Amino acid sequence: MRMTVLASGSKGNSTVIATDNTRLLIDAGLSCRELLKRMAIAGEDPAALAAILITHEHQDHIAGIGVLARRLRIPVYFTEPTHRAWVRMLTPRTTITYAQWLDHVQQEKAARAQAAAAATTEPDAPCQPEPDGNPAEPLALCAAADPDEDDTPAAKVDPTHLPAVEYFHAGVHFSIGDISITPFTIPHDAADPCGFVFESATDHARMAIATDLGYMPPNVKAALRRIDVLLLESNHDLDMLKDGPYPWSVKQRVLSRVGHLSNHATAEFLARDYDGGAHTIVLGHLSEQNNDPSLALLAAEQALNGRMSLLGNRVLLAQQSAPLPSICL
Ligand SMILES: [Zn+2]
Ligand SMILES: [Zn+2]
User: Fold this and answer.
1) The CATH number of the domain where 283 resides is what?
2) Does residue 255 sit in the same domain as residue 140?
3) pLDDT, tens digit, 9 for 90 and up, residues 23-67
4) Structural domain tally of the chain?
5) Which residues touch 105 (CB under 8 Å, ≥6 apart)?
6) Which range marks the domain in which residue 103 is found?
7) How far is the CA of 298 from the centre of ligand 2 (A)?
8) pTM of this prediction?
9) Which residues surround ligand 2, an ion (CB under 5 A)?
10) Count of CB atoms within 10 A of residue 175's CB?
11) Which of 164, 114, 160, 166 is nearest to 135 (CA)?
């Protein structure tokens, strides 16, 4: 199993989790073009991606999902509140009731089923909308095959259009290929934010992603036991944030129980609650304004206090501007 952090930070987040058989993208917070570029640099084949999983609907986690999912024709996994929040963000003037939302989801499903049926019965159908069908899907299927087209005509009609949507629920396991996934709730100011634990069915290696959380509640501490590779937030240095350029309202948001983990909070978790069993800990979502990578590293290393070795507790820093080499188990 391997983890490849393509980008981490407030300008975009995306990570590949893969076994020999299954490859998943967690968050797509960069443009489609940039994500494809970084996957090429990291040696991860985008065509082999089975799905995109979304932690929450903040722009730095979702910027590229629509275009990338349509280009690769792969499903996107959300919680339902996160999907709904994303749809609302892209159609900001629409206020819909929950009943209307359920209708919208049903219609999307029906349109996809209709398009799938059309694709199997008429493989050579021309690139034209059906006269009385939903025009979006046939166009999407054709346009998605064009590697130079940055987005599909269907997306121009409906930017919330996705090839397929799957819902998961925090606390409920599900599997994609040979990777078993357990989402867990994180405290953050989004509709229904989640972290993930991934376990390989073949060798039972376990990897986890926990960024964008205001503090470490007991459920997150419990989820992060027996993890081999852990991508953990170490967002800001408290003094740098307090003295830094952000307006007071933003400082309060970052510091709040639904904001981001400070170096101090991360170190506290590593010193007191972490079980010490990881091969590698990757510190991520570092603020460019309010953190210094050397401070984040120092805080984590001091917290691990001599538990680091060649075989365990190696600490790495995820980057905003370039992918990290894959961490392989
Ligand atoms: Zn974020
Ligand atoms: Zn966020």
Assistant:
1) 3.60.15.10
2) no
3) 999 999 999 999 999 999 999 999 999 999 999 999 999 999 999
4) 2
5) 165
6) 98-157
7) 24
8) 0.88
9) 58, 212
10) 11
11) 114
